[in-house]
Amino acid sequence: MIKRIAQHRYVPDLSHEWLVKATIFLLMLVNFLQVGMIAFAASPLMGELGVSPQEYSLSTAAYAAVAVVTISKQRWLVERIGWRNYIHASLLIFFSVACFATTAQTLLAF
User: Fold this and answer.
1) What is the enclosing helix (H) or strand (E) of 105?
2) CB 12 within 8 A of CB 19
3) Alpha helix locations (H) across the chain?
4) pTM given for the model
């Protein structure tokens, strides 16, 4: 079973193991920097938006929960609709929501 998995076309050769490790390291570094930016920006964000620490914590927890569910369902969705359709749908959703957000006149509408 393991030999068959190791020969799969998406599994890199052992000669490229350093590349896989470098990619994982860079992804974790970007994640660490993102978490750090959010942690250090929490106080100015709460002050600008006028939210309490409880409301801010609730919104970040909701974001994390949605991110976990989305990440867990990504492969399932890609296997059913294909990578190209997945990317196109993601871009369409992103751009349509971004266009909708630019028309907001108040913070609540945003």
Assistant:
1) none
2) yes
3) 2-6, 17-40, 42-49, 53-81, 83-102
4) 0.51
Q: Whole-angstrom distance between the N-terminal and C-terminal Cα of the chain?
A: 51
Summarize pLDDT for 72-104 with one digit per residue, the tens.
Answer: 888 888 889 988 898 999 899 999 988 888 887
Reading the block at residue 85, the tokens are 């359709």
- Give the position of tokens 């000669």: 15
According to DSSP, residue 14 is labeled G
pLDDT digits (tens, 9 = 90+) for 33-52: 988 888 888 888 888 888 88
40 phi and psi angles, rounded to 5 deg:
-75, -25
Say which residues have a Cβ less than 8 Å from residue 72's Cβ, sequence separation at least 6. none
**107 pLDDT more than 70:** no
What is the three-class DSSP state of 104? coil
**Chain centroid offset of residue 97 CA:** 16
Cβ count near 104 (within 10 Å): 10
